[in-house]
């Protein structure tokens, strides 16, 4: 299972979370990546943890102001990027353009989607993975794998019907080892989570619990 921790804009210490994630990944053998604010990519990558961007824009070098350039996040040490997160939705054309930018710079890609229909559309664009995250469950206490297992199974089926090479992750409310195990049982190859780690009193303990059953 892949564990992708999105720090969003939470007021956590990104280097402390990254250091904990690096240590827990090394100790457990579970692949764990951290996606901090773009301005923190360098510092997070320096810890040695697998580092992801939260977003890249569908642009190349040139006259663009206030955008996130794929080359810049790759230079800062990111090896992957989220795209089309529920809190940063793009048009279909812009998802396609962002994936082109990521491919140009060898960034691994996860396109987020609300439901199986959107998962199918996202999978058709050829990302490395898609992540189904029902917006209503994001930031809540109940994991998508418990609250809406059908949507996870539906996403796995939808992506598989379009392109079996595209991995499916799930997210929203994931915070425990049981949540991770339930996601794996439903066919997910990984989880995308945020508040369960970024808002935890002890992010290291939260990460250790997450991977305890893998
Ligand atoms: O949006 C998410 C991850 O990108 C999920 O957030 P939570 O883990 O806080 O529900």
UniProtKB/TrEMBL annotation:
Keywords on record: Cytoplasm, Gluconeogenesis, Glycolysis, Isomerase
Compartment(s) where it occurs, according to its Swiss-Prot or TrEMBL record: Cytoplasm
GO biological process terms held by the UniProt record: gluconeogenesis; glycolytic process
Catalytic activity: D-glyceraldehyde 3-phosphate = dihydroxyacetone phosphate
SUPFAM superfamilies, sorted: Triosephosphate isomerase (TIM)
InterPro entries associated with the record: Aldolase_TIM, TIM_sf, Triosephosphate_isomerase, Triosephosphate_isomerase_arc
Annotated active site: 85, 133
Predominant cellular place of this UniProt entry's protein: cytoplasm
Any GO MF annotation of the entry: triose-phosphate isomerase activity
Enzyme Commission (EC) number: 5.3.1.1
Pathway assigned to this chain's UniProt record: Carbohydrate degradation; glycolysis; D-glyceraldehyde 3-phosphate from glycerone phosphate: step 1/1; Carbohydrate biosynthesis; gluconeogenesis
Positions of substrate binding: 6-8, 138, 173, 194-195
One Pfam family per UniProt: TIM
A single cellular component GO annotation: cytoplasm
Record carries keyword Cytoplasm: yes
General function of this protein: Involved in the gluconeogenesis. Catalyzes stereospecifically the conversion of dihydroxyacetone phosphate (DHAP) to D-glyceraldehyde-3-phosphate (G3P).
Assigned protein family: Belongs to the triosephosphate isomerase family.
NCBIfam families assigned to the protein according to its UniProt record, in alphabetical order: PRK04302.1, tim
Assembly with partners or alone: Homotetramer; dimer of dimers.
Protein name: Triosephosphate isomerase
Source organism (scientific name): Haloplanus rubicundus
């Amino acid at each position: 299972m892949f564990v992708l921790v999105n720090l969003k804009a939470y007021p956590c210490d990104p280097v402390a979370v990254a250091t904990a994630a690096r240590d827990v990944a090394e100790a457990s053998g579970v692949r764990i990546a951290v996606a901090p604010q773009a301005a923190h990519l360098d510092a997070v990558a320096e810890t040695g943890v697998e580092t992801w961007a939260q977003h890249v824009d569908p642009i190349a070098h040139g006259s663009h102001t206030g955008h996130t350039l794929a080359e810049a996040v790759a230079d800062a040490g990111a090896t992957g990027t989220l795209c089309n997160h529920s809190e940063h939705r793009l048009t279909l054309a812009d998802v396609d353009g962002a994936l082109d930018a990521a491919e140009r710079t060898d960034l691994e890609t996860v396109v987020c989607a609300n439901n199986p229909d959107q998962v199918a559309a996202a999978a058709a664009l050829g990302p490395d993975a898609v992540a189904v995250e029902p917006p209503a469950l994001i930031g809540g206490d109940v994991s998508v794998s418990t609250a809406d297992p059908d949507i996870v199974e539906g996403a796995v089926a939808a992506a598989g019907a379009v392109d079996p090479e595209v991995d499916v992750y799930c997210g929203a409310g994931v915070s425990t080892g049981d949540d991770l195990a339930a996601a794996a049982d439903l066919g997910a190859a990984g989880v995308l989570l945020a508040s369960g780690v970024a808002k935890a009193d002890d992010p290291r303990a939260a990460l250790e619990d997450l991977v305890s059953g893998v």
